[in-house]
Design a protein that fits this description.
alpha/beta; 6-stranded mixed sheet
């Protein structure tokens, strides 16, 4: 199968998490081979992140059973955002049900050479980053990419 779209290389793994919410642990590598992964870098006081949240929740609801795994990587901008209790409360209030990784030491942020909140990375079943989006917007484009990668997964896994 010839792929005409851009590939950005292999996805980085979750690095040195400070903790987890909604899971006991999560791994991009372990999810691969059967899941399309959307890694979302966010922090709970970020206004732009708050605006993207309803879309992430809707995609989780719509596509989790089809093989989409959303991993929220909570990388704090301010000191008080490092407090797990504050993040847990924000997750509850936002209705987030997918796994959230606490990235208080910026290890995963740095592995992705991150600079923006929010930032989304779509990773195919082979573990390659196939789509990136920084900031708000491009929701239709992102959802189209999710559907494309899920369809590709289904064809590959037969």
């Amino acid at each position: 199968i010839e792929r005409k779209e851009v590939q950005f290389g292999r996805a980085e793994e979750i690095v040195a998490p400070s903790g987890y919410i909604n899971t006991d642990g999560v791994s991009i590598k372990e999810a691969g081979g059967g899941k399309v992964v959307l890694v979302d870098f966010w922090t709970y006081t970020c206004y732009n992140c708050q605006n993207t949240q309803p879309y992430l929740n809707a995609w989780h609801e719509e596509y989790a059973d089809d093989g989409l795994l959303i991993i929220g990587v909570h990388t704090p901008e301010f000191g008080f955002e490092k407090d797990p209790a504050n993040v847990e409360q924000a997750v509850r209030e936002a209705g987030i049900e997918y796994p959230v990784v606490l990235d208080n030491g910026y290890a995963t942020w740095n592995a992705y050479d991150q600079r923006y909140w929010p930032a989304m990375y779509l990773i195919d079943v082979d573990g390659c980053v196939r789509y990136k989006h920084f900031g708000e917007g491009a929701y239709e484009e992102t959802e189209t990419k999710i559907r494309e990668l899920l369809a590709e997964k289904d064809r590959a896994l037969g």
